[in-house]
Write a structure and sequence with these properties.
6-stranded mixed β-sheet; 4-stranded antiparallel β-sheet; 15 strands; alpha+beta
Length: 324
């Protein structure tokens, strides 16, 4: 965790999705009439590649594929030369999560004689989710103050108890009572729409679950959840109910920081429906937590904010830990 370098991080791999792998193709055409630079964005990571004057698209694509794959350790996809000016993207693993990988190519400088004729906004075609059942059973005797399921936006939106977040919620609730209560919190990230983030949070309505939302953030949903979990653990060690309103997170926000910055009304709507909004500082562009809250917002269908802030849950858990 960049947010908590001293924290302990345990990584457990779930059963991989049995579905299809998300993919996409960008198409470049022409012969450059001037020295140009193409900027590639891969879930927020920037890679600039030269397209030299006189070069056809085939020479440029060869150079671009090599440059992108050289950054492979920090990317959730690989690329290959698809021929005739195509760059083919493939997510590293199967599943719906790959559909959340945002990509883009644009002319940063120059541009004479060249075109980007096909330029999808994201990978697509990924199907089915990984299965968390086995890994959660493996850690049932262990205690973790935060559990971060790496979910797709589709899985985070789902109200199903068999979704990834649903299984994590059941796992936490099952182990939350008695003298040996584990006192754990599940943190789920979402980078889709406000409506979908609200739907996922409302379906949980749980003081031991947190939904972290960044509107069209380029970082993947699990990166948002990981940053929030790391920041929480860093400050909970200082004070159980630490006020983290406004804390900065080292995340990559939306490509369009102006157009995708949530309005005041949208932030209030998210907070009223159990979602922790991330926002963009106007002067510096830094990402900050508006207010870290639980997903609990309803008693039946009536608004109920008695377990609103995550600091309430963390403070109570710390008291119980002392009693244990």
């Amino acid at each position: 965790f960049r947010q908590n370098p001293k924290g302990k991080l345990f990584v457990v791999a779930p059963t991989v999705s049995a579905g299809a792998v998300a993919a996409a193709t960008q198409t470049f055409a022409g012969t450059a009439t001037e020295n140009s630079t193409i900027r590639f964005r891969g879930h927020g990571r920037l890679i600039d590649v030269a397209w030299n004057s006189g070069e056809a698209e085939t020479a440029f694509v060869t150079r671009a594929v090599a440059a992108i794959n050289a950054e492979g350790a920090d990317l959730a996809f690989t690329v290959v030369d698809g021929g005739t000016g195509d760059i083919d993207y493939t997510a590293k693993y199967a599943g719906l999560w790959g559909n959340d990988i945002l990509i883009n190519a644009s002319v940063l400088s120059g541009g004479g004689g060249i075109t980007i004729s096909v330029n999808p906004a994201a990978l697509s075609g990924g199907t089915l989710e990984p299965t968390f059942t086995t890994v959660l059973a493996l850690v049932a005797t262990s205690k973790f103050r935060r559990i971060v399921p790496c979910c797709s936006n589709a899985d985070a939106t789902s109200a199903s108890a068999t979704s990834g977040p649903g299984r994590v919620e059941t796992h936490i609730d099952t182990l939350e009572t008695g003298n040996e209560a584990k006192l754990q919190v599940g943190v789920v990230g979402h980078t889709g729409t406000i409506a979908n983030a609200k739907a996922g949070a409302i379906a949980k309505n749980n003081e031991a679950m947190q939904y972290v939302f960044g509107q069209t953030f380029e970082d993947l949903p699990c990166e948002l959840a990981g940053a929030e979990a790391g920041d929480a653990l860093n400050f909970v060690t200082l004070r159980a109910n630490y006020n983290r309103i406004g804390n900065r997170l080292e995340l990559l926000g939306p490509a369009d920081a102006v157009g995708e910055k949530p309005t005041g009304a949208e932030v209030e709507d998210l907070l009223n429906n159990g979602v922790t909004p991330l926002n963009i500082e106007q002067l510096t562009g830094e990402i900050f937590v508006v207010r870290p809250i639980t997903t609990h917002s309803l008693s039946s269908t009536t608004p109920d904010y008695r377990a609103f802030d995550m600091s309430d849950t963390d403070g109570m858990y710390s008291v119980v830990e002392d009693l244990q």
